[in-house]
Fold:
Amino acid sequence: LPDRGYAFARPLGLLLTTYVLWMGGSLGLLRNSVGGALFSLLVVAALSLIIYQRGRSEGDPGLLRWLRDNGRLVLAVELLFLGALALWSLVRAYSPELTTAGGEKFMEIMYLNSIGRSEYFPPLDAWLSGFAISYYYFGYVMIAMLARLSGFPAHMIFNVGLALLFALTCTGGFGVVYNLVRGVKDRDAEAEQEDSAEPARPARPIAWGFLGAILVAVLGNLQGFLEVLYSSQLLPPGFWQWLDIKDINQPIDPTVAPSLMPARSGWWWWRASRVIHDLDPQGNSMGIQPIDEFPGFSFLLGDMHPHVLALPFVLLALALALNALKSGTEAPPLEEDKGWLEPLKQLSLLVPLCLGALVFLNTWDFPIYWLVLVAAYGLGQWERYGRLGRPLLRDLVVTGGVLGVLSILLYLPFYIGFQSQAGGLLPTLYVGTRFRQYLVMFGPFLVAIAGLLIVLLRRLTVQLPLRKVLRSWAGWTAAVLLLPLAFMLLLVLALLLIPQGQELLE
Structure:
C-alpha cells in the first residue's frame, strides 16, 4: 500500500495485543491482569522487531527514512486521530450517561466489568451466576484491556472508549481512501513518464483521505434534512404521506410554528436509524421494522455494541483486500503454472488473524469481508494469470478455502465455548425496500456515484460510440436487477416442494 498500512497501525496493534492476552487466558497460560496485558504487549513488540529486522536485511530503507519521506502523511494521520479523539471526548463529556432506550448500555458495561474481574477466558457472566459470557465479546476484551492498563474503572473507560473507536474509524476511513487516490496518482505519474504529452491529473490524496473519514464516520442519511423540512412546513402533507417514514408521515400540527430546528421531540434524530417502513402484502405496517443504523448515528447514540466495536477492524479488512488486489496487479505476470500450494506461500498469517477476528467482534461481518478479500485477491491474480482459466480458479478456491479455515482455527477457543440463543435462518420473501426510502438511506452516496458514472460515461464516449456504451451499460444493469429476482424465484419454488416451506409461504 502507498501508506505501508500506517493509518491502520493502531487497530492492528490493539488487535494483536488483545489476541495474545485472550489466547493465553483461554489456554490458561496468562492471567487477565496488568501483568498479562504488559506481557502480551511485549510479545507483539518483540515479534514486530524481528519482522522489521528481517525486512531491513532484504533491502527495506527503514522506518526513520520512511517517516522522513512521508512526513505530511504521518502528520495528517496523527492530527486526525488526536482531533477526532478530542472532539468525541468533548461530545461524550456533555452526554456521559449510560442510559438508553432498550438498556443495551447496561449490558455493555456489565461485559466490561465482568471481563475486568475474570482471571481467564471465557469471562464470567455477571447476570447469570456460574456461567461464562456466550457472546462475541472480543471488542470488550480490547476496551477492558485498555481500561486495566490505564487504571480507569469501566464506567470511565466506557465513554473514553467510544471516543477511541470514533478516532480509529476516522483514521481507517482516511487510510482506505488515501491509498485508493494515491494509487491512482502514482499510476498516472508512471503513465506521464511513458507519454510526456499527457500530463497526469492533479490529485490530493490527503485531502481526499479527510473526506473519506467524514463520509465513513460522520455522514448519515437524509433523515435529518427531511426533519428540518418537516419542521419548517415547507412541503405539502401529501409528500410526507407518500414518503411514508414513521413519525413524519403524520399531518403537521397547525398550532406549532414553523422552525428550522426539529421540534417533533427531543429524540427526533432517532428516526434516522429507522427510515424503512415495511408493509406486508396487504399493505399493512409490519410489527417488526428493520434497523438502518450508520456509524454517525451509533457514535451519537453512544452504544458500545459489537457493530461499533468492529468498525475500525472492518476498515482494516478492506485495507488487506486492497493490499491483496495491488499485490496481484503490480506483480510480474506468471509465465507458468506453479502448482496447488505455491499461492499459499504468499499468504501471510496476519491476514486470517485479522479476518477471523471479525467473527469474534461482530459475527456477520466475517462472511462479507471474507468475500470482499477473496474477490480482491482474485481480481489481482486475474491480471497476473492473464486469463480466466483453471489455474486461476484453482488458486482462488485454494486460497479462499485456506483463508476461511485458518480464520476459524485461530479463534477456536471462542467457538468451543460459544452457544448461540439463535438458531437457523429464514428468508424474507415478499418485503422489499421501497425506492423512496432507499433514496433517503443512501441519497448522499447515490449523488456521488451518479457523478462518477457521468464522468466515466464522458471518458468512454471519447473512445467508443455512445450507442455502444449505453447498450453495454443497459445489459449490465439488467443483469444486476434480474439476477436477484431469479434467485428469489428459485428460492420460492424450492420452498414449495417441502411442507415446511409451504407453511412459511402461507
